[in-house]
Amino acid sequence: MNIFGIIGWKNSGKTGLMERLVSEITSRGFKVSTLKHAHHSFDIDHQGRDSFRHREAGAYEVMLSSNKRWALMHELRGETEPSFTELISMMKPVDLVLVEGFKKEKHAKLECYRLENKESLIYKIDKSICLIASDTQINNIDIPNVNLDDTILIADFILEHQGLI
Q: Domains of the chain, with CATH numbers?
C-alpha cells in the first residue's frame, strides 16, 4: 500500500491537515484510510454502553456492527503494542494510507511546523521527511517548504510522490 505520513510537534497542525487531505484526496476519487498513533491511553467506547461492559468484563476483542459501520476493538491486556508494520497489515488495501504520528518509522512523510511552537525541525534528523508544511517561510533547507494551509498543493505533492498521479 501507498503510505505517507504527517508528523510534527504537538499543536503543529497535523490533525487539521490530515482532515483536509482526506477530504481533498477522496474528492478526487481515491480511497484513503488513516492510521493515528496516540501517545497516551485513549478510549473510543463509553462507560455504560454494552460494548464497554463487554470489554470491562474481560473480552479480548469486541466488535460492533450496524448498517452504517463496524468497529473492532482489541484489548492488549498486557501484550506489546503491535508494530507499525503489523498495524498496516491489518488494514484493507486502499489507494493511500495517511499516517499521523509514528515519527520513527521510515515511510515518506511531511513535517508540519508552526513558528510559534519554537521547536526544532524534525527533518534535520529524519531523512524520510520530503516536505515541510509550515506557517512561515523556512530558509536554508534542502527540501520543499509549502504553506500549511495550501491543501491542494500538499495533496498534489503527496499523490505525485506516491506515484498516484
A: 3-40+82-161 (3.40.50.300)
- Residue in the block written with cell 463487554: 54
The Cα–Cα gap between 20 and 17 comes to 5
Q: Which amino acid is at 114?
A: R
H/E element, 63? strand 61-65
Separation CA 29–CA 26 (nearest Å): 5
Single pTM value for the model: 0.92
Q: Which of 108, 114, 103, 110 is nearest to 138 (CA)?
A: 114
Summarised one tens digit per residue, pLDDT across range 58-67 is 999 999 999 9
State the residue for C-alpha cell 474528492: 27
For residues 104-128, b (16+ Cβ closer than 10 Å) or e, as one string?
ebeebbbbbbbeeeeeebbbeeeee
What tens digit of pLDDT does each residue of 110-127 get?
A: 999 999 999 999 999 999
